[in-house]
Every structure is written in C-alpha cells, then in structure tokens.
C-alpha cells in the first residue's frame, strides 16, 4: 500500500497537462514538490503533520483534476482550462454528449466525472497522510533519503541532466500551479481593459444614412458554417472531397451568374465555443473567452448585422437551428426576429447534436422570410449546424421539392453511421468531417443558385477550426470566408482585398484577424467612420 501511495502522489506531481506529454519518460523524473513535502512533514509533530499532509494531498488532487481538464480543453478547444471562466462550459459539454450519445450516457459521464474528481482528491489526501506516517516512523532514514534526493535534484537541475530530452529535475506541479494562477490574474486584469476597449468604436456614432450605403437594395445573408476551417481545404485526407465540392459549386454558381471572392480569417476560438467566433466577426472585437462575450453582448457595441438594422433600410432576421433556449443576444446582434430550433417547423430526426439538416433550415428560411414579398430588403444571419461534431450520422442532400416538414430525413438518419463508430476514431472523424463540410457548402450554394436574385449578396465563413483530433495538434486557427454576388459592383468594392476568385481561397490568400472583418466590410461598402470613445 505504501508503494501504491507513493506511486500515486509522485505520478500526480509529474502528470503533464497536455495529451502529447503523456509519455512514460515524463514519470521517471525527480519531483521537487515531493522532496519539499517530505521535509515539511518530517519537521512537524503528529497532529499538525496529519492536517498538513491531508491538505497537501488534497491540493495535489485538485491540481491533478485541473491538469486533466487542461488536457481535455486543449484537445477540444486548443487552450487550457480557465478556473474563472470555464465552469459553465462543462454543462455545455454534458449537453453535447446528451445530443450526441443520449441522455443516459451524458448523465453517466457527468456523474462519473464528478465521482472521479472527488475520488482523486480524497485518495491523494489519504495517500499523503499514509506517506507522512511512514516518514515519521523512519525519521532518520527518511531524513537521509530526503537529503540525498534534494542533492540529486539540485545537481541535475544545475547540470541540465536529461533523459530522452526530458530534464530529470522536475518542478512540474509548481509550474502548473503557477500557470493556473497566472491565468486567473490575467483574466481579472483583462476584464476592465476589455470593457474599455469595447466602448471605443470606430463606427459607433455613424449616422444611419452613412452605414453601408453601397449595399442599399440588396438582400444580404451572413452565414456561418460550423467548424469550417482551413483544415477542410488543406488536409490531405479531408481536402480532396471538400475542394472538389468548392470548385464544382463555383462553376455552378458562375453558370447562374454568380461570382465569388475568398480569403482567410483567423478565428478567436478553436474546436468549439462557436459563439465566440460569431461575435468576433460581427463586433470587430477579439472575443476569445466567455467573460469578453458577456461583457460585449451586455453593451451597445455596433455589430455588423446591427448596422443594417440601424439604417432602417432593412428587415433583419436570424435563423438559429442550434438555439434551443432563450437567446437574449438577439437584441445585441440587431435582429428583429429570430427563428430557433422550434420555430422552423421541422418534424424529422435530429442528426446527433444538429437539430435539423442545413438544407431544411435554408428551405424554411426561404419559406418563412426570404421568399416573402416585402417593401424593403432583408439582412439575415444564418448559423448552419450540420457540420458540428461528432459528424455522425450525417444528412444527405435531397430534392428541394421533397423537403416537406423534414420527415424525408428519417430513413437517411437511420441508415447513417453511429456516433460511437466515429467519435473516438481520428481517421474516421476526419473523413466524416470532410463529408459534413461538403454537404453544408453544397446546400448553402444550392440554396443561392435556386432562390437568389440579382440583388442577393451571400457572405459565408467558418466559425472555427475543428477539434485537434481532426485538424491536428499544431493547426492554425484560420477559416475560409467568401463573398458571393451576381452584381459585379459588389465584388469590385472588395478588389483591394486581393482575395482569390471562386469559393476556394488560395493557400497564400490574405489572412486577417477575424476581429478586423467588421470594419473592413463596413468601409468597403461606403460606411463613414464616426467613432465613440471609451
């Protein structure tokens, strides 16, 4: 038992906080924290020793839980866990599992995670108390051993001794604690600074008649394709199917009179938290965490979609098939009306997390808003969700005239792949991800070809790259963005952007931060800056 206790405590102290770091050589090091802990326990009388050992062990357990959360967040979101901001995302993770694997599996996973966390803290505390008692019973030999270990650690640190490129002397736990503390401090400092930044707006005081004058009379659609990242266009396994679709749809649109320009935007998020990408692109601010999102959406920052509403020259509508609860952000986005998952009349099956196929959502948008007669043009924000992970089962395109209430998708969903067959397999995830992106792009551009007019302008982009299991450990955060229109003057306005012709951006096409898109778009289409100061 003593050996197991020692292995648990030392293993926890050496545990990396990234998946690639989980290698055997990382657990053959000398942890400084174990030596310091041993010296401290040896110096204390029995009762204080037990209390300190329990607290020290519990602290190691908490740090282990945070390291495991870091591993999970890095794998899915490309960043570590933030103890100030990210607790709410755990509930989103549970909801995602419920939609993907079923409520029973989600509940079991949530209960299992809580039990595991409590068990880790309890067991490491008990193990440390046991080791403290062992040290006290063999005080002389333990003191000698601590001295030898300390000397070895100092020598290895001073000489830079390494095994397989890994330093033998470790202060991994102290470094992890320091990193978590730094995140907390940086988060608290960022809150006030960002609130001031959000109040400074180059177009905040622009009069309505000076906003997007060059798009007056146009029906403008801003569409976000879930997880549509650079990986879809450049990964050797994924890209062939996606680029084939992009090229085929470019040609089909050209035959219908539409032309496109495409470039790259660097998203503020990665792997998930799509709302951070949406708000970054439309607000002109870098919104890379939940605190920034709450701050900006509770204010009156002018969004790109809100600029159209402010003019009074457009009706504004949002199509949000992924929204299944109250969404007060609609006011901030400047949307007169929002259609959520329950407003689009869908009666077919869900496709894992996605409440309905993109093709149906687009047809419902046509039926409910875009195809209606109106006395002024329409500005729309549409979020397409069929390419949301786990990419199984996937919908397929059907005849647009057969969509009905969506029941036609029942047989397709039943014949599709099971989530469990794809979600844990990197190669299969990549293949199915590519199919999902091709489906979403084809559906959106077919909608434009079928229902667009001479005055339709479509802007579509990805919100973020897919998770690391698909995009890779060192993937960029770039996403494609395209502007499509039949009126040549619409594309002439962005000639200075030097974007690639067609729907597929060239590898060397310009790359902008996503937060720059709002101001560049407003400027290109004639808006006059009138700043507000923070």
TrEMBL record:
Keyword Cytoplasm: no
Keyword Transmembrane helix: yes
Record-annotated membrane-spanning stretches: 28-44, 51-69, 105-129, 141-161
Listed GO MF terms: transferase activity
Keywords: Membrane, Transferase, Transmembrane, Transmembrane helix
Protein name: CDP-alcohol phosphatidyltransferase
Record organism: Streptomyces caelestis
InterPro entries tied to this protein: Alkaline_phosphatase_core_sf
């Amino acid at each position: 038992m003593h050996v197991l206790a020692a292995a648990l405590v030392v293993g926890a102290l050496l545990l990396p906080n990234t998946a690639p770091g989980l290698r055997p050589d990382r657990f053959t090091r000398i942890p400084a924290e174990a030596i310091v802990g041993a010296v401290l326990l040896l110096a204390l009388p029995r009762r204080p020793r037990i209390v300190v050992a329990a607290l020290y062990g519990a602290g190691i357990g908490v740090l282990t839980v945070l390291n495991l959360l870091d591993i999970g967040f890095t794998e899915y979101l490309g960043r570590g866990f933030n103890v100030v901001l990210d607790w709410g995302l755990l509930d989103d993770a549970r909801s995602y599992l419920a939609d993907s694997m079923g409520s029973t599996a989600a509940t079991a996973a949530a209960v299992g995670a809580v039990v595991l966390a409590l068990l880790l803290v309890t067991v490491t505390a008990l193990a440390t108390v046991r080791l403290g008692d062992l040290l006290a019973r063999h005080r002389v030999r333990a003191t000698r051993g601590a001295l030898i270990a300390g000397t070895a650690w100092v020598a290895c640190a001073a000489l830079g001794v390494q095994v397989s490129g890994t330093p033998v002397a470790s202060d991994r736990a102290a470094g992890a604690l320091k990193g978590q503390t730094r995140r907390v401090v940086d988060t608290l400092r960022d809150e006030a600074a960002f609130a001031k930044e959000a109040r400074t707006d180059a177009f905040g005081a622009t009069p309505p008649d000076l906003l997007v004058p060059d798009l007056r009379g146009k029906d403008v659609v801003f569409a976000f394709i879930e997880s549509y990242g650079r990986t879809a266009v450049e990964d050797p396994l994924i890209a062939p199917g996606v680029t084939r679709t992009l090229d085929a749809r470019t040609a089909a649109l050209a035959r219908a009179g539409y032309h496109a320009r495409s470039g790259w935007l660097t998203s503020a998020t990665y792997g998930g938290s799509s709302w951070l990408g949406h708000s970054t692109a439309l607000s002109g601010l870098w919104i890379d965490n939940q605190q920034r999102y709450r701050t900006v959406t509770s204010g009156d920052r002018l969004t790109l979609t809100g600029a159209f509403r402010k003019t009074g020259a457009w009706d504004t509508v949002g199509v949000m098939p992924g929204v299944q609860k109250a969404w007060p952000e609609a006011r901030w986005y400047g949307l007169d009306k929002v259609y959520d998952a329950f407003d689009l009349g869908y009666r077919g099956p869900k496709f894992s997390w996605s409440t309905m196929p993109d093709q149906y959502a687009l047809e419902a948008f046509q039926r409910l808003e875009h195809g209606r007669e109106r006395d002024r043009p329409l500005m729309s924000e549409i979020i397409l969700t069929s390419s949301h992970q786990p990419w199984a089962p996937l919908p397929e395109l059907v005849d647009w005239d057969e969509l009905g209430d969506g029941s036609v998708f029942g047989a397709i969903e039943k014949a599709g792949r099971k989530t469990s067959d794809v979600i844990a397999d990197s190669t299969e995830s990549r293949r199915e991800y590519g199919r999902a992106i091709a489906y979403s792009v084809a559906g959106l551009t077919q909608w434009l070809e079928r229902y667009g007019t001479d005055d339709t302008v479509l802007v579509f982009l990805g919100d973020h790259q897919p998770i690391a299991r698909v995009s890779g450990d060192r993937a960029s955060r770039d996403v494609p963005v395209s502007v499509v229109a039949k009126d040549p003057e619409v594309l002439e306005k962005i000639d200075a952007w030097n974007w690639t012709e067609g729907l597929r951006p060239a590898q060397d096409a310009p790359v902008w931060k996503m937060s720059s898109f709002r101001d560049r778009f407003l400027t290109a289409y004639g808006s006059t800056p009138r700043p507000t100061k923070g």
